[in-house]
Amino acid sequence: xxxxxxxxxxxxxxxxxxxxxxxxxxxxxxxxxxxxxxxxxxxxxxxxxxxxxxxxxxxxxxxxxxxxxxxxxxxxxxxxxxxxxxxxxxxxxxxxxxxxxxxxxxxxxxxxxxxxxxxxxxxxxxxxxxxxxxxxxxxxxxxxxxxxxxxxxxxxxxxxxxxxxxxxxxxxxxxxxxxxxxxxxxxxxxxxxxxxxxxxxxxxxxxxxxxxxxxxxxxxxxxxxxxxxxxxxxxxxxxxxxxxxxxxxxxxxxxxxxxxxxxxxxxxxxxxxxxxxxxxxxxxxxxxxxxxxxxxxxxxxxxxxxxxxxxxxxxxxxxxxxxxxxxxxxxxxxxxxxxxxxxxxxxxxxxxxxxxxxxxxxxxxxxxxxxxxxxxxxxxxxxxxxxxxxxxxx
Length: 394
Ligand SMILES: Cc1ncc(COP(=O)(O)O)c(C=O)c1O
Known about the structure:
The chain has 394 residues and is α/β, with parallel strands linked by helices. Helices cover 36% and strands 15% of the residues.
């Protein structure tokens, strides 16, 4: 085979390279035969063998491995500074594979009480039926997490930081210590921060989860997920389950995420710049009851966020002083902000979590306020975003 996907090793020349260099070069060496600078989309399900068992570069069948996917997995591992990365068909597919690889029926996990609704639904409606118990706690409270752990039974402490949509912050270093004391693994969903703003494995986490649908892909044109781990033994278990379950990222989707990662650094800087401008505008507006952004000193997790993130990200949530209807009307009136679920793309999105992304947690402990609006601040001209919000607030 002619592809030069680096086999889960960023290569000595990339180990000490800066983030942007790793994002652009880590997973691929220009193709030996053609010099192709960018990895091709290897649209193949199978690979010719040189005699029975004579695999070229280890490629046998594309559920097990595909060079475009390998390039993405290697880049993700290099950006998160992990041992090995894995790419999946969606963030939830990555989460489910991780759970099957690390837990068994009868085990227990600790979840954030403000986790992404789909993550909660996975644990509450799918993994629970499989026999996995869970306790949802406020992960900003390290003692509460420690108290929720059932020694000998808790396998995972699950952390999202910042959380979706209320931007709660958990202390990765402190929670890693609490999880490890009890023999559990700390899993960090790093979707909101992206590896550019926060690298949980360097702070003691064992596994990083991504919905690559969001900032990693960055262009709202692909659904995908990823896991990155530090430990080689855990990597082997995940590799086995990734192949055995089969919820893998296809080559075209892998290619889109890989292309997105190459510009992650510059996009994140602009997302953060624009989010700060939006926060400044909303903070001074009487139509807004509360602005929720980890970069604000008034945010309860500000200090921890400042320690573990390089900037505070592109997601801003706020509560409309006029209540639920005013929040719904604001979403309907926005024009530059597109009314849509998801986040992390170049375009700004607005949504009402209570009726949209988080409708699945209505009536549970994870229910979100009815007057809450979530903004995914894109990379358009900041003045246009502010003028749009000013009009939309009513
Ligand atoms: C923080 C977080 N984790 C996981 C997911 C699930 O990812 P996906 O939609 O790619 O399955 C999402 C989706 O919105 C998310 O916001």
